[in-house]
Amino acid sequence: MKCLVLGAAAGGGFPQWNCGCRNCALARAGDPTARPRSQASVALRGRGGQWMIIGASPDLRAQILANPELAPPAGTRNSPIGAVVLVSADVDGIAGVLTLREQHAFRLYAPAKILQLLQENGVFAALDPALVERTELPPGAAVQTPMGLTLTLLEMPGKTPLYQEVRSAAAPEPAPTYAARIEAGGRVCVVAPGCAEITEAVLTQLADADLLFFDGTLFTDTEMIDAGLSWKTSRRMGHVPVSGADGSLARLASLRARKIYFHINNSNPMLLENSAERAAVTAAGFEVSHDGMGVEL
Ligand SMILES: [Zn+2]
Question: Helix, strand or coil for residue 215?
């Protein structure tokens, strides 16, 4: 199984179009320690060179163009993208499917709630149901895909998508978000762009992973507040911070998987290759992903 990071940043990307924070300013200036990143997506190659895309961000078109392995063979109109898996109903998790509307047949896998959301929003009718077969993924049930990858939806603690929230609420309505577990040839990869809290149930679900792409949205719980960018804590945004006693660095340390952060917000200091935060992450045995990063599993 080959895994390819199409986008390593959280919603908004890096740099974010309307953000002049220190990180974004460095990325915009072309500083080599602040490599730009597009919004979160990971692709996995299955049987016959077919690719499964986990997470469809608004950057999906540019991500496909940036990765020659996802290009149609010359002389054909036939993309090697055979499946798209939606694990988050946030805009940066679903909007990219609209890019894939040019008469290409593929399978769309998602939990019932996300399929319902697509059904209710007329713009997604642009994906012809005769070509794009929608398959419901019940959490915890292993689904065999035609490309030989076994797909299981894992439930993670989360919250309702931002656009469905009561904006003034101090605490968001808790709602599950999801990770995708992909198994092939006895090897397991888990892609988890959002996780509000690392509970024992989460650790159990991640225990047998060989490779883990995990939510690296914010470094500290108060990062957005400290930077004057928002009033929300990391947990209020539905993302466990990297640092702290209950942070992902500490809580995931005992997992045997190769651990790679993705879905990283532009404010996160670990994006900067020469930062103390990056050094701490590296010292703990974790990696910080970038667009185009490939991992053979
Ligand atoms: Zn920024």
Answer: strand
Q: Is 157 helix (H, G, I), strand (E, B) or coil?
A: coil
How many angstroms does the Cα of residue 11 sit away from the middle of ligand 1? 11
Q: Which two tokens stand for residue 208?
A: 């047998």
| Distant-in-sequence, close-in-space partners of 46: CB < 8 Å, separation ≥ 6 | 1, 52, 82, 145, 147, 148, 149, 184
Helix H segments across the chain? 22-28, 60-66, 91-94, 112-120, 200-206, 223-226, 248-251, 276-283
What secondary structure letter does DSSP report for 188?
A: E
Q: Using CA of residue 293, residue 41, residue 275, residue 27, what is the dihedral sign?
A: positive
CA of 106 to the centre of ligand 1 (A): 35
Measured in Å, residue 209 CA sits from the centre of ligand 1 at 32
Ligand 1 centroid from CA 13, angstroms: 9
pLDDT per residue over 189-246, tens digit each?
999 999 999 999 999 999 999 999 999 999 999 998 898 888 888 888 889 999 999 9
CA of 223 to the centre of ligand 1 (A): 11
pLDDT (tens digit per residue) in 102-124: 889 999 999 999 999 999 999 99
Compute the distance from residue 206 Cα to the ligand 1 centre, in Å: 31
**CA 103, 124, 17, 281: dihedral to nearest 10 degrees?**
-90
Q: How far is the CA of 18 from the centre of ligand 1 (A)?
A: 8
User: Maximum CA pair distance of the chain?
Assistant: 55
Per-residue model confidence as pLDDT tens digits over 244-276: 999 999 999 999 999 999 999 999 999 999 999
Centre of ligand 1 to C-alpha 48, Å, is: 40
CA of 20 to the centre of ligand 1 (A): 6
Using the mean position of ligand 1's atoms as its centre, give its distance from the Cα of residue 112 in Å: 34
